[in-house]
Each structure stands twice: as C-alpha cells, then as structure tokens.
Amino acid sequence: MKTSKATVLVATAVVLALGATACGGDSDSGGNKGGKGATDAALTSVVNKTDKKGGTAVYEVSDEPDSLDPGNTYYGWVQNFSRLYGRTLTSFKPAAGKDGLEVVPDLAEGLGTKSADAKTWTYKLKKGIKFQDGSPVTSKDVKYAIERSNFAPEALSNGPTYFKAHLDGGDKYQGPYKDKNPAGIASIQTPDDSTIVFKLKDAFADFDYLATFSQTAPIQRAKDKGADYVKNIQSTGPYKFESYEEGRSATLVRNENWDAKTDTLRPALPDKITIRFKVKQETIDNNLISDNATVDAAGTGVAPATQPSVLTKANLKKQTDNPYAGATSYIGLNANVKPFDNIECRKAVQWGIDKASVQAAQGGDPKGDVATTLIPPTVAGYTRFDLYETEGHKGDQVKAKEALTKCGQPNGFKTNLSARSDRPAEIAMATAVQASLKKIGIQAEIKTFPAGKYFQNFAGNPSYVHANGLGMIMTAWGADWPTGFGFLDQIVNGSAIKPSGGNNVQELNDPKINEMLNKGIATTDDAAREKVWGDVDKAVVEGATAVPLIYRKNLLLRPESATNVTITQAYLGQYDYLLLGSSK
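Now predict its structure.
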C-alpha cells in the first residue's frame, strides 16, 4: 500500500534479535562490525547481526498482559509476543527502516485477492502448517478463531471489533458459544481446507492490514475453552508454552511441529523464552543495564527515574534508541459521566491543561512532543491543527473559566482521573494534569489501576466507569496499522464501544463521525481516503471528548549483549520479536 512520507518515519518498535552471546562478528547494515551499536543506531539499521541459535531470552514487563490468548488481547506488545506461537494470515516484514511497513504473507500463500469493489477478500493457506499436536491447520480453524475473538464478548472482551463491524451479517451473529450452528457466520466462507473468503458489507481498502491481527491466528474448536484457553494455548509458531502462571510468568520452548520451510519470517533463535510479569519498571531498567534481562516486553521506554542516567552516561546512552512511537497520549473525557455530558465542561478541561507541564512530567523532549491532534505526525492522514492554541502550550485559565461559566460550573467541579498504576510516566502526567486543573477550580482525584486489567475491568468497562465517576481517563494509542483508519477507528467509532475491554473510553458515538469513518475506509483513492482521516480527527477534537497530550517517543534501552537490534515501523512503540534470540 502507498504510504506518505510521514508514514515512512513511523519508527516505533525495537526489534530485538538477541544472540546467545554479544560477540557476533557479523557486520550490521550500517557498517558496524562486531560492535555494540551507537545511540539510535537501530532506527535505520540492524545492530550486531547474528544467526546464532541457542540460549534463553528473558522478557520482563511491569504488569501482566490483558491476555496471552491471541483472540483476547489488544496490547501492542502482546500482539507482537503472540507471533512467537500464533501465525496470522499476513504479517509485517521483519526489516529495518521503511521496509518494516511492508505487509507480507504468513499463514497465507500471498496477500488477499480482492473483488473489484473491495467487498470480497480471498486468501489461500500454505500447505504443511501444523498445530503443536501435529494436526494440520485448515481455513476452518482461521474462521473459528475470528468468530470467537470478535463475537463472544461475554468470554473474550479485549480485542478489536473490526470483523464484527464490517463482515456482512456481523451485527446479527451471536458467536460460537451462543450460536450452536457449527457452520458459523455465513460471511466467512471456507470452500476447502486451504481457502478462506471474507464477504464484507462495505468496501475495506485496508483488509491486508487487518489480516495481520492475532485474531486470525488459527484455533481448533475442540481445544477452545473460552476464557480458559489461555491456560492451554495451542501453538502454530516456532514456540509453544511449557508453563503459564497467571499474573506471574510464562515459559516457551521450541515447537517440534513448526516447519521452518513454511515460515520465512521467524528465524527462531533462542531455545527458550521466559517472561516475568509485574516487575517494577525501575527493576526492569536496572536488569537491562546490568545485562540480566534481554528486553522490556512493554517497550514504552525507561522510567522517569532511570532517564537521567541513561542520557548522561556515555556507556548507557549508546545503548538507547529513541524513535517516535507513532502513538499519542491523551485523556478521554467520558460524555456519559457528568458534567462531561456538557461540551463546555469538556472545553474547560481542554483550555485549562498546561501541556508543557505534562510534557516535562513524563520526561521532557526525549519522551515526546506536545500534541494538538489525535493522529500523530508519523501516521498517514495526519493533518496539522490546534483548536485550543495557547502560548507555549501552557493553557489559558481565562478561556477555561469562561467555559466553566457556560457549562453552569463557574466555581469548578469534582471528577476522577484514572491512570495505570505500574506506569510511572503516566502517573506523573496525570499529576501534572491534576495540578493544572486545580488552578481553575476542577478537582481531579487520581485513581490508579493495573495495566493488565485497565480496559477490561476499569477504564474500558462502561458500567465501572459510570458507577465510579471516571470522567477523565488517561490512555495512549498507537495505530493498529499505519493509516488514519488504523489509528482512529477503535477509539472514536461508536461501533467499538463494548461492555468490557473497550478502547473508545470517551464512549463517543457520533453518527456523523461513524459515517465518516465507514465511508473513508470504503474509499479506494489513497489521497481522498487520507483526507477523511484528518477531517475525522478534527471533528473529534472539536467535540472535546479527547484531549491530546503528547506525541510519544520511546526512550528504549537495549542490553549490552543485544544483537540483531532494529526498529520495526509496524508495531508502534512496542518490541517486535520475530528476530529475537537470547542474550548473554
């Protein structure tokens, strides 16, 4: 797909392919022979290449995942991690620079074949791909995986809703747990074991991007246990689960029924992969510095407390990469929590926040630029505007108080502001927001929740949000794929509102915006389609349900023994694990 010059700059996820030792003598594509790389070296080249196999890769993350079930996750880092054990119809090419944006076949023999109206998409599966038990993967397994992940929110609430929103009849199908017809949804057809056909109710120009999602990783109906499937995931990738302890850890070992001849994307270097959950971010940083961990799985950057040392010590600074994340930190103002049902109360927050102080609190320039739009400059469809422009991005108390008067709250009001408890930078940002709003009479009490359940149980659960008055919700978003639709749809489309696990935390359901999104994705002209995304972005910010804060950068730290390190432009702000080996 054509991408704009800005999209080429989407440098957002570090591909850490870590060899068994740090002594790999191969030259990287930037010409560094056998060295440890330099500051930002991985943004445009592969640092310290090796093809050495063996050893253990050690992952650590500051909280637990939403789920490791490929059909029940929406965190970017889990999407990446799941590719170690779940193959999808298509994937992103593991490569440095702009080449990492290329969509390539994975389960499928080639990219999708589309009808003239882009409403029918057909994929043919490769021969010889098996589950870890030796059973062949069929098109019916892919169909079932999509059915359970998109149409069973009572059991699997975390993933996106693209298939449900765009498949013909998707609004009527009740999912495989309620609808006992084994034929499933009629708009996904499997005429034979190697062919899958998608019939859409509208044109969908980005479908090959959608096919990269972990929701297309095949699942055997007979092995599915609903929400408990995470305890016994069946692999189609080079690794399978040896153990899984919820909230604590997981260990992956080689899958003997993975055939490398069918998979050109995964070199599968380490013999074993371990991941520890709920490790303090500062501890993760120290383990990376001391070379006792391979990678920070979440990939959101070092803690504020660590940042000064890695930027001022030459030996550590050369081990950092600081790409733009292609993501935006913002506050969702929930229109169903009073007084944010009144647009003037929402505008008071827009005018009242000192974004410069928010930027400073989360780490200053090294961690990102002040944002005025939702779509960041590195995503196709970005249009520059600033509807709440203030000098130095410091807010305007006069205009904020005028808005408070218009909304019937001249003395301000009380509300709750949520943030993730294991993300120090996010809490620091929330604290700065709180201080800004206090100056205009808005008392925002900060409520913190664990990242692993943040959307499922709290910020993305409308019942909890309403009952507990979460009027302001701290969040961050990177594009599902590097287009404006891939960025906006799941956070502003009314069809994305879910009983649990939703990311439209504002509960925005504006018919005009919904229609703009649906017409935009059906537009086959690239330039016209990209213009729509800028128009949607402006309409959302104009309605004041989202307060853009920061275009994020991720100050990432690679351990000294890291090899094959590069930035992939596809997984925004997260690590790409397809090249990953062991360290030390």
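The two ends are 39 Å apart (CA to CA).
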